[in-house]
Amino acid sequence: MKLMYFNDFRLGVLKNDLVIDVTPLVQNIPHTGPGNLMNGLIGNFSNFRAKLEKASNTGKGFPIAQVKIRPPLPKPVNIECMAVNYMEDGTLSEPALINAFHKSANCIIGHGETMILPDIPASVFEGEAELGLIIGKGGSFIPQSKAMEHIFGYVNFIDGSARGVKPDGNTFYQMKSRATFAPLGPYIVTADEIPDPQKLQIKLWVNGALKQNFNTDDMAHRIPRCIEWISGIHPIESGDIIATGTNHRGLSAFQNGDKVDLEVEGLGRLTISVRDDLQRTWARETRLDRQQKGLKGLTPQLTGKYTPT
């Protein structure tokens, strides 16, 4: 099943290209807004699934092209992002130590919305194509053998980053938790529709040019291990997101006017735009391009405020 929010945060089930409004069916879930309504639905999905499936089979709905798509998870309690969690197409000799960082739920934007690059002296702004896991059943100290039972579904996720912020050693929070730096969507795909999340192709385009193209089978620490590790640090809750990391070789600078598309296999296409009021520019090269040219470091800024002198 594909779940989404549309227009003024009506809850919809996507069937083929039609969005069926199922909002009246979930109104008895205690909630104060669309955020905890979706979290509540995810946590009690077994009590609602049959009703939602029946409604989605009526054939009456709105063409998806005619609705405004909203973020399908407006307010998870936790967004946890795995760091350096790919073997970079098998080029790393050994996996990095398992690691993650917390990203604010206030960073979330949805399909068709805009990532805004802030007026700060960052070296470069990037967006990482990632598979997002959505937790269904919460818990603590979840063993790997039970971890997949705790997944409700999956979603396209872009991890926005402001690289090179200062001071060194005090960067993750201000680099990763900027407003608009967590695009996701366009909808949630329930776990039963994705037979093997460790064999999904992930592609990201910038202005139609394919930049990232990798498979989740290259993960350094696989999904059950990520869930085990994070739930051993703090409880995870229904509706939480675990972003599983990216292959860094295709990362490139996001800049003003860019149109960015992300497709994780089976999860639809998430499209966002980028706005930089300073209109800074960088070369359009990827990290792999620089590596193949024998160049070190991040893509340097070419023009605009904060250009290195």
Please provide a written account of the structure.
- The protein has 309 residues and is α+β, with helices and mostly antiparallel strands.
- The protein has 2 domains: 2-70, FAH (SH3 type barrels), CATH 2.30.30.370; 79-303, Fumarylacetoacetase-like, C-terminal domain (Fumarylacetoacetate hydrolase, domain 2, Alpha-Beta Complex).
- The protein has helices at residues 34-43, 49-56, 144-147, 172-176, 223-231, 287-292; strands at 2-6, 10-15, 18-21, 62-63, 69-70, 79-82, 100-103, 108-109, 114-116, 124-135, 151-163, 182-190, 201-206, 209-215, 241-243, 259-264, 269-275, 281-282, 301-303.
- Strand 13 (201-206) and strand 14 form a beta hairpin.
- The longest helix is centred in the N-terminal third of the chain and has 10 residues, at 34-43.
- It is globular.
Name given to the CATH architecture of the largest domain? Alpha-Beta Complex
Superfamily at the CATH H level of the largest domain? Fumarylacetoacetase-like, C-terminal domain
Largest sheet: 12 strands, mixed
Outline the low-pLDDT stretches.
none
Q: What would CATH call the class of the largest domain?
A: Alpha Beta
- Helix-strand makeup class: alpha+beta
Shape type? globular
First-last Cα distance:
53 Å
Count up the helices: 6
Helix fraction, binned, reads 10-25%
Q: Kindly state the number of beta strands.
A: 19
What integer value in Å does the Rg equal?
Answer: 19 Å
Oligomer: single chain
Order of helices and strands: EEEHHEEEEEEEHEHEEEHEEEEHE
- The CATH topology assignment of the largest domain is Fumarylacetoacetate hydrolase, domain 2
Look at the structure and give the mean pLDDT. Answer: 96
